[in-house]
Every structure is written in structure tokens, then in C-alpha cells.
């Protein structure tokens, strides 16, 4: 491996794979070996994303426990990661975001006395229940991290308020924007892929009504909130106010409610989960995005796509400040009113509050300098 000790990049979900891919590519381009450790948290979904991004899982923990309770999942991943760290003795572990896999990667590295670099550090809503359990996860990763790659100034300030040493914080932009630019370039250069998507989803290319793209999956929205969201979408579709495309999350608790409320409506298209390229292709053609996703809140502004956020709070406040997104009360009447009001607004110019598409390069540069300058044992002694 070029005579260098590897870094371990721990990922387990589709968003992690998308956002870690530019970082891994930039590190490898600089000659730094990186092993991708796939936990299997999104066992059925992430391998497809790996192939799309040209990645291979160097180490597959073989977990594939999608739908497991967070505590069970965390324990299972930790047990499988411990021997991996013992066998490879990496210089550093990379984790991204706030998933169970990210927390497990940070804890396993800390237990093995391996420094941790946290990609997308410092996101906070200030409410442990919004989003749950991710708000807790990212706050728990912070003390274990030696390096904090904050996507924005807001995220960096949150870390400083928590007492993180300023020398350990690096504002890099969000690597999800790197992935967005790369995916747009592929769409623009691959006529066959574009034609295939157009043939598969003709209602996206030629919608009869303004195209609304919706995604719903958050744990805290399951229950009464999900019923309200479904009721709002049903009203919009039934009165042909919008053509709605809704990729269904695999969670049965989400699918059952949405299918019961929305199946059979002429202007409603319930489709299986889509890959990253397909999602970006759809977002480029939509008039409005209605979502509880974090990553889509970051990508939509750069596509000139207005977003209604179905959450009580968001950690992506930069999009709110830019006028690209709006928090909506999760009541059927409020959602319908917000959709109608937003569709009356004119086109939005693309804005990039989350970075310029060079986060991977910046992270790789910082890590390269850190690896050259720092003895692992010394950093771990300082980090704890």
C-alpha cells in the first residue's frame, strides 16, 4: 500500500457513501491509501450507491440489519469494528455525519486509540429530539474527534461554543456539493443515461401539472405527522394542483401509511428508492421539493429548487437564510398552503450556501499535512 499506513473510512448508509466518496477520491489522488469499511446499516441500498460512485467496500462487516433498533445496531457494528481496527492499526479513522455507523466508527477508533476525523462536524439544532437520534450522535462524536471538518461557518461556531479547540476545526464546505457537481457533470455528458431516465419517468420530463418531488423518511415523522403529510399530498394530487413524485423509503412503517393514503391517485407517482444520479435528475426538473431529508436541503439550493422542510427544526439554517428553504408546520392545511404559496413564486437562481464543490480537496489537504506533521500517539494523548 505504497508504504503508507491506511486510513479507515467507515460508512454504512447512502448519504455517508455519497459524501465520503469525494474525500476518499481526493486522498487516493494524493497517494494516501484509504480502506472503505462498509457496515451494512443500509444493507440493501448503499451497495448500489457504491457502484454508482465507483467505490468498492474493501471491508464489508456483513451486518445488513436495516430496520434494527439503534442500540442493537450500534452494539453489532462496534463488535465487528473492534477486530478491524486491531488488525489494520490505521493512522486515522474517517467518519461522516451523524448515523449509527458514524458514531460506532468514532467509538471503535477511540477505544483503539486511533485519531478520528469527523466530516460534516458541528451541525446542531439544539434539540436532542430533532432529529432523533442523529442530534445526539453528532454531539457524541465531537469529543472523540481530533479533527473537525465543519461544512460552514455556522457549524464551526457551534463547535467553538462547545469548547472545541479552534486549531482542530477546519471549514471546508460540504462534500455533498462535490458529489452534486460530479453527478451533474455525468448527467450532462451521458446522453444514454439521460435518455434512459426520460423513458423510465416520462411524467418527470413532461408533467401535466407543476412537478413536486417529495421524500419522507425521518423517524420523528412516523405517526401523527406522517398522516398529516400524506393527507396534504393526497389533497394536492386529488385536485391536480401538482404532479407528485414520491420515492418510497424502505421502512415498512413509512410505506404502509403512504400507500394506504396515496395509492391510486392519478397525479401521484409512488416509486421505489432511486439512486443519487436519478434523484439529482429529478430535482433538476422539479418546481418544488417537499422533504424531511438533510442532504437534499443541501443539494436543492444549488439546483435552484425551492424546498419546504417537513421538520420542527433544521441544522441546515444556511438554506433558510438564503431564502432557498422554509420550515413548514407539519399539519395538512399548513403544508398545502405552503405548497400553493411557493408555487406562485418565480424561478429561484441557484445559490450555494453549503460550499463550492471543493470540500474533498480541502479535507485531503488538511489530512495530508496532519499526517505528515503529527505522531498518532501524541495526538491521542491530547484528544482525551
Characterization of the model:
- The chain is an alpha/beta fold.
- It folds into two domains: 7-174 and 355-382, Glycogen Phosphorylase B (Rossmann fold); 191-345, Glycogen Phosphorylase B (Rossmann fold, 3-Layer(aba) Sandwich).
- The protein contains 17 helices and 13 strands.
- The strands form two sheets. The protein has a seven-stranded parallel β-sheet with strand order 3-2-1-4-5-6-7, sandwiched between helices.
- Helix 3 (70-88) packs across helix 4 and helix 7 crosses helix 12 (276-285).
- It is an enzyme of class 5 (isomerase).
- Its EC number is 5.1.3.14.
Outline of the structure:
The protein is an alpha/beta fold and 384 residues long. Helix content is 48%, strand content 14%.
Relevant terms:
384 residues, globular, Rossmann fold, single chain, seven-stranded parallel β-sheet, alpha/beta, 13 strands, 17 helices
Strand content: 5-15%
Average residue pLDDT: 93
Strands of the largest sheet, in order across it? 3-2-1-4-5-6-7
Shape: globular
CATH topology of the largest domain: Rossmann fold
Radius of gyration over alpha carbons? 21 Å
- The number of helices is 17
- Which stretches are low in confidence, meaning pLDDT under 50 for 5 or more residues running? none
- CATH homology-level superfamily of the largest domain: Glycogen Phosphorylase B
N-to-C span = 30 Å
Main sheet record = 7 strands, parallel
**Protein structure class:** alpha/beta
Report the order of strands and helices.
EHEHEHEHEHEHEHHHEHEHEHEHEHEHHH
Number of domains: 2
**What percent of the residues sit in helical stretches (DSSP H or I)?**
40-55%
Any idea what the CATH architecture of the largest domain is?
A: 3-Layer(aba) Sandwich
Number of strands: 13
* Top CATH class of the largest domain: Alpha Beta
Catalytic activity: UDP-N-acetyl-alpha-D-glucosamine = UDP-N-acetyl-alpha-D-mannosamine
Family: Belongs to the UDP-N-acetylglucosamine 2-epimerase family.
Organism: Sandaracinobacter neustonicus
GO molecular function, one term: UDP-N-acetylglucosamine 2-epimerase activity
Amino acid at each position: 500500500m505504497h508504504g503508507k499506513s491506511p486510513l479507515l473510512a467507515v460508512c454504512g448508509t447512502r448519504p455517508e457513501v455519497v459524501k465520503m466518496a469525494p474525500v476518499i477520491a481526493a486522498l487516493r489522488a494524493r497517494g494516501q491509501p484509504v480502506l472503505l469499511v462498509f457496515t451494512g446499516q443500509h444493507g440493501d441500498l448503499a451497495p448500489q450507491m457504491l457502484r454508482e460512485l465507483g467505490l468498492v467496500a474493501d471491508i464489508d462487516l456483513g451486518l445488513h440489519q436495516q430496520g434494527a433498533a439503534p442500540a442493537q445496531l450500534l452494539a453489532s457494528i462496534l463488535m465487528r469494528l473492534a477486530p478491524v481496527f486491531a488488525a489494520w492499526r490505521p493512522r486515522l479513522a474517517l467518519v461522516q455525519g451523524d448515523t449509527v455507523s458514524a458514531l460506532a466508527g468514532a467509538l471503535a477508533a477511540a477505544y483503539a486509540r486511533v485519531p478520528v476525523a469527523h466530516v460534516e462536524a458541528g451541525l446542531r439544532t439544539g434539540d436532542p429530539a430533532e432529529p432523533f437520534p442523529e442530534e445526539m450522535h453528532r454531539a457524541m462524536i465531537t469529543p472523540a474527534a481530533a479533527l473537525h471538518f465543519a461544512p460552514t461557518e455556522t457549524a464551526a461556531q457551534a463547535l467553538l461554543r462547545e469548547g472545541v479547540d479552534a486549531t482542530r476545526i477546519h471549514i471546508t464546505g460540504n462534500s455533498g456539493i462535490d458529489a452534486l457537481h460530479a453527478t451533474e457533470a455525468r448527467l450532462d455528458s451521458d446522453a444514454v443515461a439521460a435518455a434512459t431516465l426520460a423513458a423510465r419517468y416520462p411524467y418527470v420530463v413532461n408533467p401535466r401539472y407543476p412537478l413536486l418531488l417529495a421524500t419522507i423518511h425521518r423517524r420523528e415523522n412516523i405517526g401523527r405527522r406522517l398522516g398529516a403529510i400524506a393527507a396534504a399530498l393526497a389533497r394536492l394530487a386529488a385536485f391536480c394542483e401538482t404532479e407528485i413524485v414520491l420515492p418510497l423509503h424502505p421502512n415498512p412503517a413509512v410505506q404502509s401509511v403512504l400507500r394506504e393514503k396515496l395509492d391510486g391517485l392519478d397525479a401521484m407517482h409512488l416509486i421505489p428508492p432511486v439512486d443519487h444520479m436519478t434523484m439529482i435528475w429529478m430535482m433538476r426538473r422539479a418546481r418544488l421539493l417537499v422533504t424531511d431529508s438533510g442532504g437534499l436541503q443541501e443539494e436543492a439550493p444549488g439546483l435552484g429548487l425551492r424546498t419546504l422542510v417537513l421538520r420542527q427544526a433544521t441544522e441546515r439554517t444556511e438554506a433558510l437564510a438564503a431564502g432557498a428553504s422554509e420550515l413548514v408546520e407539519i399539519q395538512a392545511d399548513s403544508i398545502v398552503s405552503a405548497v400553493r404559496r411557493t408555487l406562485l413564486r418565480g424561478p429561484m437562481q441557484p445559490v450555494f450556501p453549503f460550499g463550492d464543490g471543493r470540500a474533498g480537496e480541502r479535507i485531503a489537504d488538511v489530512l495530508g499535512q496532519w499526517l505528515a506533521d503529527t505522531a498518532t500517539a501524541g495526538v491521542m494523548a491530547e484528544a482525551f
